[in-house]
Amino acid sequence: MHIDSKAERLVREALDAVVKRDVARFADALVALSGPEVATAGYRLAASVVFAVLQEQYRGQPPAEEIRAVAEEVADAENWTDLTADEIETFLATYYAGATVDTVMPIERAVLVAYVLAANLLASYHNDGEWWFNYLDRVELALETAP
Predict the structure, then answer these.
(1) Which domain of life is it from (predicted)?
(2) Which domain range does residue 110 map to?
């Protein structure tokens, strides 16, 4: 996967805002990511991070009950957003079913889910003694070098 450097910088800003629960900064990051040059690249990167982290943590696709558990945990942890566990579960299940998310939810909600979920998973699953952004570095390297 090619990672666009401009989109990557903006994605990091959005993820950092989510990790720090900085609503205004996250809103600004989403506006910056809405431009035609970076919107798709940013969304794809955030979604790819979500599924790479889950792939690593579950050594493959999580079973349906784990998808639901992740959705509930993230919705609870990120209750400063208006995301629901159902939306997060739908996002994950749709991807794993091989469908496109915009067929089951508005793309604006899918984008929000992707960024919040990516940030939460990076912050939750990094190695002991590792910062979430160092985990992001490892995930991005794996995405860039994957066949």
Answers:
(1) Bacteria
(2) 5-145
